[in-house]
Amino acid sequence: MFTPSDLLKHYVKEAFNREQVPASDEHIKTWDKRRHELARSVFGVLKTNTGGMFVFKEDRSHCSGEVSNDPRAWFDEFRKFHRNRLISPLQEGATMLQSSAPDQAKPLLQQLLAGISSLRSEELVQAYGRWLSLEAKIDSLLKESRIKTDKLIREQGNLLFNKDKRVFFDLAAFFDTLTQGDEEEDDGAEYDEDVTEEPTQPSHNEAQKAFFAYQRFLQSYARSRYHGRSLGKSSRAAHIRDWLDDRVPSEEWLKTLGGEMTFQNALRRFRNAWKRYVLDVPASYRAFRRQCIAEQRYAYRAPDNPVHIDGVELDAIILLMLRSARELMQQEFVRNDLGQPQFFELARIANQFQHQVLVDEATDFSMLQLACMESLTNLKTRSFFACGDFNQRITGHGIRSLEQVSWISEQIQDKRITTVYRQSRMLNAFAGELLQLMDGDTTALGVLPEYSAHEGVMPVFVEGMDEPLAVAQWLAERISEIERMVHQMPTVAVLVASESFVRPIADALSEQLESINLKAVACLEGKALGDDTDVRIFDIQHIKGLEFEAVFFVGVDTLAEMTPDLFERYLYVGATRAATYLGMLCHKGLPEKLSSLKLRFSERW
Predict the structure, then answer these.
(1) Res. 204 pLDDT band, cuts 50 70 90
(2) Which of 173, 342, 416, 563 has the largest CB neighbor count within 10 A?
(3) Where are the alpha helices (DSSP H) in 465-602?
(4) Which residues does UniProt call coiled coil (predicted)?
C-alpha cells in the first residue's frame, strides 16, 4: 500500500491495527521511500559504491511545470527515443559484420541479420527472442575469435614488458594524471568485452590494472584504425597513444586486431540484446535530456551536473524500466525460463511485484508515480486499487482527471463513493458551498445518509488577529468551549500555513492550555502523528487522510498568499478533516473569493 506522507502511513497502520489487520512497514510505504529502494537497489539507476548512473536531487526541478502536470507526450517521446537508440547500434553492428565476418560465419549472419535494416521499434521484443535462440552459435564464433585477439594482445604486452619491466607501473602512474574530463574515446567500446568475462574481484595490483586498461586501449584503437577513424584530440585513447609513442604497434598489426575486434564488437550487440531494453533506460534518458536541452525542447532547466536528476525524471526512468521488463516477461522466450540464470535481472524485478497494490489519496500522486505503482502489480492478477478525491488534490503534480487515469492503464474502472459518515450536516453543507466557490466537482461532494442525526454546529471565524498571543488565546477559548459542550476532550487539530508556524503556535497555545491541563504538540514535518489526548499542530500539507472531531485553520489568508494556486484545495481538505467543529482564523481578512462564506460562520460556540 502506498501513501503520500509518513503521517498518513502511521495513521493507516493504526487503523489497520484497530481492525486486527497486521500492517508492517514492509506493507505500507510512501512512494518516496519505495522509489529510492527501487532506483538504488533494484534497477541500479542511482549511484552506489558499485555502480549506478545518477544522483537524485530532491530539491531540484529540471522538468518544466507543463511536463510535471501532464507528462504523457514527453514520456512517450522518451520511450520512442530509447527504442530507436537501441536499434541504431544493432544496425551499425549489421554493417560491421558484413565487412568483417569470416566465411564460416556467413550462414549465421543470414539468420541474425534478417530484417535488421528495416527493424521498427515495435518489433524489437520479438527480434530479441529470435536472436536469443542463436546465442549458442554466436558464443562459438566469439570464442574462436577471442582466442586470436587474446593471443595478439598478450604477445604485444609481453614485448613491452620484456623491454621495460616497469612499463605497466609507469602506465598506471600516467593514468593517475588523466582527469575525469577527458572524453571517452569510443562509443562502441562497451561491446569490446563480454560482461561475464570481467574480473569478479577488483585487482589491487596497479600494474595488472594498467595492463587491463592497455588491453582495452588496443581493442578500441585497433577498431578505429581498421575503420580509418582518427581519435579525438582530447580523448583518453589519444592521451594513451601519445604516451606510448613509438611503442604503439604497427599499422598492419592494429588492422589485424581491429578486424577481429570489429567482428567481436558487432556480434556482441546481438548477444543478450534484450537486457538493454531494460538496463539501458538510464543511459537513454541522459542522451534524451541532452538532446532536448540542445534543441531547447520541453523547457528543460539544465542540471548543475549531468548526473543529477529530479523526481519527475526518476519516476519516468523507473516507469519505463518497469514497463519494458513486464513486456519482456510476457514473451514466450522469457516466460518459460524466467527462473534461469540468464534472466536474473528480470527475475529480480519480478520479485518486486505484489499480488495487490493499494493507493490512498491517489490524487496527490503524479501520473508517472501511479503508473509505476500499477506496474508493480503481479502480471497475472494486475490487482490495483486507488482511492482519492480530485477536489482534494493538494500537490501541483497530482493527477487531475479520469482521462489521465486511463493513461496509467486502460483496464482501470472508476467507481464513485459519495457517502459520508463522519461529518455533521452543518459542516457538510459548508464544504459544499466551499466546493462551489473553488469551481470544484460538486458531484463528488460527500452525501450524508438520510438517517444521520448529526446536525452539528456552525463553524466559527475570526479575522484581524495577527499577534501570536491573541491567536493562542482565541484557540484556547474555542477549545474550552468544546470541552464544556461535550464534557470530554475530543480529538483536536490546529492546521497552519507552513512548517515555520508549527512550533511557535504549539508553544504559545500550550501556555494558554496549561490551566486546564492540556498541551499542544508540534507534529513537525509530518513525521509524528501525536496522541489523541493532545491538541496537535500540523502543517496543512501533511494532514491528507487524517480525521479529527475538531479542526482549527490558522492563517487562511497567509496560505492564500503563499500558494495562490492551491490554497482553496488546502482549505477544502482542512474543512473536510473536521467531523463536528471547524474554526478559521485570518491574520488580516478573509480572501475576497471566500467573502460570501462569512454568513456561514459564528463568533463562538
Answers:
(1) low
(2) 563
(3) 468-486, 502-513, 556-562, 567-575
(4) none
Query: Cβ distance 540 to 570 under 8 Å?
Result: yes
Helix axes of 135-163 and 167-175: crossing angle, nearest 10 degrees: 110
pLDDT band at 233 (very low <50, low <70, confident <90, very high): confident
Tell me where in the chain the CATH 3.40.50.300 domain(s) lie.
Answer: 425-600
What are 262-281's pLDDT values in tens digits?
999 999 999 999 999 999 99
Q: How many residues does the chain have?
A: 605
CA distance 11 to 547: 9
Closest CA to 554 of 584, 582, 579, 529: 584
Residue 555 backbone dihedrals phi, psi, to 5 degrees: 85, 45
Q: What is the DSSP track for 373-408?
A: HHTTB-TTT-EEEE---GGG--STTS---HHHHHHH
C-alpha to C-alpha distances, 579 to 16, 136, 264, 459, 601, nearest whole angstrom: 21, 69, 71, 11, 16
Report pLDDT for 242. 94
Hey, which CATH number is domain 425-600, 3.10.560.10, 3.40.1080.10, 2.40.37.10, 3.40.50.300? 3.40.50.300
| Under 8 Å between Cβ of 35 and 317 | no
Strands 520-522 and 492-496: unpaired
Q: How far apart are CA 515 and CA 519, in angstroms?
A: 10
Cα three-residue angle 365-367-368, rounded to 5 degrees:
95
Q: Which three cell numbers stand for residue 450?
A: 438520510
Cell of 367: 501520473
Q: Which residues of 41-75 are buried (b: 16+ CB within 10 A; e: fewer)?
A: ebbbbbeeeeebbbebbeeeebbeeebbbbbeebb
Residue type, 164: D
Q: Taking the C-alpha atoms of 212, 218, 219 and 225 in order, what is their torsion angle to the nearest 10 degrees?
A: 170
CA dist 82 and 278 (Å) reads: 10
Closest CA to 156 of 252, 265, 268, 237: 252
Q: What does the H/E/C string look like for 89-152? A: HHHHHHHHHHHHCCHHHHHHHHHHCCCHHHCCHHHHHHHHHHHHCCHHHHHHHHHHHHHHHHHH
Give the separation between CA 183 and CA 181, rounded to whole angstroms. 6
| pLDDT at residue number 353 | 97
Q: What is the pLDDT of residues 432-483, one digit of tens each?
A: 888 888 777 777 776 766 766 677 889 999 999 989 999 999 999 999 999 9
C-alpha cell at 183: 572524453
pTM equals: 0.84
